[in-house]
Here is the input.
Amino acid sequence: MPSIWSFVLYSGFFPFIASVLLVITPYKLRKYTHRVLSAMFFFDFWTGYPIIHAFLAVEGILLGYLIKETMDFKEPEKIAEVASMSLHPKSKQWRGQRNCYAVAWAFTSWWMLYTLLSYERKMEEVRTSKKKA
Here is the structure.
């Protein structure tokens, strides 16, 4: 059964691949690549906000929550007081850190794609304004 953490982790692969594609595309084809990726990731569901903003908001909030939970410095339980069939506190701490790293990577991938697409949009506006002048 897939968990929310696997969805969050794997959701970071799409913007990562798109960012790499945008960066390695030759200059002559970059305009077309930018148009396709902008149409995909800046798609608007009649709400006024592109889909990339939704991913950034959700993963940013989730990342903030996980950082708070991971960095919560509690006094560790003594091993003798841990129930025999429960998860050890160190395992819970490791799981929280792993989830935090996965969300941080996915959030960074989405943010990098957003930055690259915004930069390409501004560069395209500069090129078109130079042609008109």
